[in-house]
Predict the 3D structure of the following.
Amino acid sequence: MNSEVIPREEAFANARRILDQARARRDRDRAAGRLPAEIELVCRRLERQQRAAAPAIEHHAAA
């Protein structure tokens, strides 16, 4: 059993790195047209939701 403790900052950095790699792969696959149609639709829906929420967040931050 390994009793080594990973510092919180290192754990978050590792998780961020892995997430960034996964997003980059998804973006490459999407650009090449390799995503299944249902996944492409999910991506478009999420992007639409993010665009709709962005002005509300910016407006709230300015207040």
